[in-house]
Design a protein that fits this description.
Largest sheet: 9 strands, mixed
Distance between the termini: 35 Å
Number of strands: 23
Radius of gyration: 20 Å
CATH architecture of the largest domain: Alpha-Beta Complex
Shape: globular
Number of helices: 9
CATH topology of the largest domain: Spore Coat Polysaccharide Biosynthesis Protein SpsA, Chain A
CATH class of the largest domain: Alpha Beta
């Protein structure tokens, strides 16, 4: 059976300063640690034995998610003193992942999506490829690494954030991969540590088979920066993500797409124009107006403040929330 590896060792530098105190896969999305959505998605598609790597603030990450049982999976961890790279992390976990000729699925731990993981696995098996990439049609290819494909969705080339007007494809790489064991053997033989910059170009240069699996009618976001982080919470409140029945805690959400954690304290005259999320322990003062806002756990929103299309909080408050989840 296909094994699953979750890449969760990165520092998430584009989300600093928040990621200086909480690892990116544990940042709150719709008031839940984000990696939980991915773990539950894997379980929904029949993948229950997972291995993940951790490095930056690994004690927080392992403390929050533990053995994965709260999310319906069996989760093992490989802690890396220093990040080993995308391929390097998988190679270091081969003892847990290898099962004869069975494929290995690799997922980016910062992704919030509703991709059909079972369908991606089927594409890989049926194509006979060494590697299969899930790709998503996007409106602006200049923001992504994109895959160029032929009529059978076999990948013939890549472009990294092509300038507008020069793009040869609109199929963005989502960081969802399936590999045949031979691909990992080649990483070892060639001394490679990264999939995107090293393995995939080498496979193409040698005429090896890389398959694309287009994701259609699929929500996907990698919470790569502050705007995208907030956008994932918005997507959940809007119902744009198929998170599965009972898959996330929407207690406190009203019809205006406002989600307030039960432990938050709001003054009576606070105005909230959805979508808005107010985190655990947050305190929102008199006369505050929130519009398309994300109020982080234990944030203090002072009297009269207007927050429009923004995020408010403190690293101390966010760290307190994460440490409470660990405890």
């Amino acid at each position: 059976m296909t094994s699953v590896f979750v890449m969760a060792a990165g520092k998430g530098t584009r989300l600093a300063p928040w990621t200086t105190v909480v690892p990116k896969p544990a940042l709150p999305v719709a008031n839940e640690p984000s990696l939980g959505f991915l773990l539950r998605l894997a379980a929904r598609h029949g993948f229950r034995d997972l291995t993940a790597n951790a490095s930056w603030l690994s004690d927080v990450l392992l403390g929050i998610f533990g053995d994965g049982s709260a999310h319906g999976v069996n989760l093992a961890w490989n802690v890396e003193d220093e990040p080993l790279g995308t391929a390097g992390g998988v190679l270091a976990a081969q003892d847990q992942l290898r099962d004869g000729d069975e494929p290995i699925m690799v997922l980016s731990g910062d992704g919030i999506h509703d991709a059909d993981l079972a369908a991606i696995e089927r594409t890989h098996r049926e194509s006979g490829a060494l590697a299969t990439l899930a790709v998503l049609p996007v409106a602006d290819a200049s923001q992504y690494g994109v895959a160029v494909v032929d009529g059978s969705n076999r990948i013939t080339g890549f472009q990294e954030k092509p300038a507008r007007g020069t793009e040869l494809s609109n199929l963005a790489n989502t960081g969802i991969y399936v590999f045949s064991p031979e691909a990992l053997d080649l990483c070892t033989t060639w001394g490679l540590t990264d999939f995107g910059s090293e393995l995939f170009p080498r496979l193409l240069a040698e005429g090896r088979h890389i398959q694309a699996h287009p994701l259609l009618e699929t929500y996907w976001n990698d919470i790569g920066d502050l705007d995208e982080w907030r956008a994932t919470s918005v997507a959940l409140l809007d119902g744009d993500v198929d998170a599965g029945p009972g898959a996330w805690n929407d207690d406190g959400m009203n019809a205006d797409r406002v989600l307030v954690h039960p432990t938050a304290q709001l003054a009576d005259d606070v105005q909230m124009i959805g979508p808005c999320v107010v985190g655990a322990g947050a305190r929102v003062g008199n006369g505050v107006v929130l519009r398309s806002a994300m109020v982080l756990p234990y944030a203090e929103v002072p009297t009269g403040l207007v927050v429009a299309s923004g995020t408010v909080g403190s690293t101390a408050g966010l760290e307190r929330w994460a440490r409470e989840l660990v405890d």
